[in-house]
Specification:
alpha/beta, eight-stranded mixed sheet, eight-stranded parallel barrel, 19 helices, 29% helix, EC 3.5.1.2, Imidazole glycerol phosphate synthase hisHF, chloroplast, lyase activity
């Protein structure tokens, strides 16, 4: 049966304040900020060698037109396309869309901001015309959602109107965490062409809104995914494709999807490995704490209760490897995400931290799973008196290859002020970045420490009964949040902070524990259960892993969506693959 004829609602509208924020923070002049300081880009680039790219350049017509409207991380899409042997032509005018031989639209950020930019620049009408003519098109994530009639995100907001349906938010009242973040499986409905090589394996999703199947759009649907309800995971009509997940972040499986789109007439000589994916997988994340050593070189280090120096006469920074090389190895080993934490670079001048940006750029060339970066993402004024917003800082991280940014101390201060006044100002780094890029792009990192109690009523903060009593037999504890790398305690508990940052726009929580850090005795189950039960956004368990059994314990005893480790992976005490094999053996869904 033929799909219904295209009918679009491509109309112009004024550029909203959100889109103005978006376009100003992501403009070419913004990128130039990083070249106007005393740091030498050439000097630092020489210290990082990009892993050898094994792709082969395509022959003949090898150009992909990319619609990058200036939001979020499209570097990974660029890198994946280049990895597969194609060159890229960026859309500068609506005519570039109409002349494209094949068009990729990696939509990132908020629906309203994206539509405002497309309408203001005349891109919306050109997109509709291109797609209506059945030209080769691949939309990714928001690039799928914008094809529908409208979205409820900060709306209703009109979309391109090419596919019947309204994009709505996931329902978290049924116990499913929103955003939907992680590796999930597809139910392929029709001949999808580009999905032929998936082989029942996981792909990576990160979104809070989705389109639902209906009688009006069923002829478009090529696959669905189940997360509470069955939502549209991909569409196809002729040469027009769009996917809700991120193929550029879905490892080898995702690359096979992109390859199928770019080489539609190619045939697969090797049958894809058949997987056993059945539902949303628990994630295993490798974390790299990155800082400069005493010689000025960036190294991966690991603390013992946040102390990263060797206990030797030289007292040097503990060096566990080079960040780009280690990240590449963890990708090969099967890590579901790689997280970078810059633990020293931003104390004085965040925008001058060129080495960390280079790490992201080089890593994203050959690592096709999500990358998170944290450390010093805040407003600041430089030595010349020029003010930069946290949004500008985050924007350059996204443009350099980050998929998510992690906010620590600044989120604590924002939560304290919000709990004190009850007012969302919209000016905090958490609110600004979440508004422009979506809450799924914002992780809040919490660094609490136990404060033991004999009576839970002794404090105003949420206390828990401990599985293991304290040093003096205390049966209870509250978890005091800290800032500045654990050096300063604050008058707010982890429970109160988690609830507040969820309301302010956080999409995920990275939950550390100073007491467990580097001890190898297991995650703090009491803390993780407390927080994962308190919020409806995903929680990443961190600090304390020392054996594969610790990962099983945290997933079986808490509602954590992911577990993160550092030192045991760096020192090769417990390989990533061993963790996954153990989890699979214990009946816990993982991506293999």
């Amino acid at each position: 049966m033929e799909a219904p004829p295209f009918s679009s609602s491509c109309s112009s509208s004024p550029l909203s304040s959100t889109a103005r924020l978006l376009s100003s923070s992501s403009s070419p002049s913004s990128s130039l900020l990083f070249r106007r300081n005393s740091f030498s880009k050439t000097h630092y680039a020489a210290k990082f060698k990009s892993p050898r790219n094994l792709s082969v350049r395509a022959s003949g017509d090898s150009v992909v037109t990319l619609l990058d409207y200036g939001a979020g991380n499209v570097r990974s899409v660029r890198n994946a396309i280049r990895y597969l042997g194609f060159d890229i032509k960026d859309v500068q005018t609506p005519e570039d869309i109409l002349k494209a031989d094949r068009l990729v639209f990696p939509g990132v950020g908020a629906f309203a901001a994206a539509m405002d930019v497309l309408n203001k620049n005349g891109m919306a009408e050109a997109l509709c015309s291109y797609i209506e003519k059945d030209r080769p098109f691949l939309g990714i994530c928001l690039g799928l959602q914008l094809l529908f009639e409208s979205s409820e995100e900060n709306g209703p907001v009109n979309g391109l109107g090419l596919i019947p349906g309204v994009v709505g938010r996931f329902d978290s009242s049924n116990g499913f965490r929103v955003p939907h973040i992680g590796w999930n499986t597809l139910q392929i409905k029709n001949d999808s062409e580009i999905l032929d090589d998936i082989g029942n394996r996981h792909v990576y999703f990160v979104h809070s809104y989705r389109a639902m199947p209906s009688d009006d759009n069923k002829e478009w649907i090529s696959s669905t995914c189940n997360y509470g309800d069955n939502f549209i995971a991909s569409i196809r009509r002729g040469n027009v494709h769009a996917v809700q997940f991120h193929p550029e972040k879905s490892g080898d499986v995702g690359l096979s999807i992109l390859r199928r789109f770019l080489y539609p007439k190619s045939t697969t000589t090797k049958k894809p490995t058949e997987g056993k994916a059945s539902k949303l997988a628990k994630r295993v994340i490798a974390c790299l704490d990155v800082r400069a050593n005493d010689k000025g070189d960036l190294v991966v280090t690991k603390g013992d209760q946040y102390d990263v120096r060797e206990h030797t006469e030289e007292n040097e920074v503990r060096n566990l490897g080079k960040p780009v090389e280690l990240a590449g190895q963890y990708y090969v080993d099967g890590a579901d995400e790689v997280s970078f934490l810059n633990i020293t670079g931003f104390r004085d001048f965040p925008l001058g931290d060129l080495p960390m940006l280079q790490v992201l750029r080089y890593t994203s060339e050959n690592v096709f799973v999500p990358l998170t970066v944290g450390g010093g993402i805040r407003d600041f004024t430089d030595a010349n008196g020029r003010h930069y917003t946290s949004l500008e800082v985050a924007s350059e991280y996204f443009r350099s290859g980050a998929d998510k940014i992690s906010i620590g101390s600044d989120a604590v201060y924002a939560a304290e002020e919000y709990l004190r006044t009850g007012v969302k100002t919209g000016k905090t780094s958490l609110e600004q970045i979440s508004r422009v890029y979506g809450n799924q792009a914002v992780v809040v990192s919490i660094d609490p420490r136990r404060v033991y109690l004999k009576n839970p009523n002794d404090v105003e903060f949420k206390a828990v009964k401990l599985k293991n009593p304290g040093p003096n037999g205390e049966e209870y504890a509250w978890y005091q949040c800290t800032v500045n790398g654990g050096r300063e305690g604050r008058p707010i508990g982890a429970y109160e902070l988690a609830k507040a940052v969820e309301e302010l726009g956080a999409g995920e929580i990275l939950l550390n524990c100073i007491d467990c850090d580097g001890q190898g005795k297991g995650f703090d189950i009491d803390l993780i259960k407390l927080i994962s039960d308190a919020v409806s956004i995903p929680v990443i368990a961190s600090s304390g892993a020392g054996a594969v059994e610790h990962f099983t314990e945290v997933f079986m005893k808490t509602n954590a969506s992911a577990a993160l480790a550092a030192g045991i992976f760096h020192r090769k005490e417990v390989p990533v693959q061993s963790v996954k094999e153990h989890l699979l053996k214990e009946g816990i869904e993982v991506r293999i």
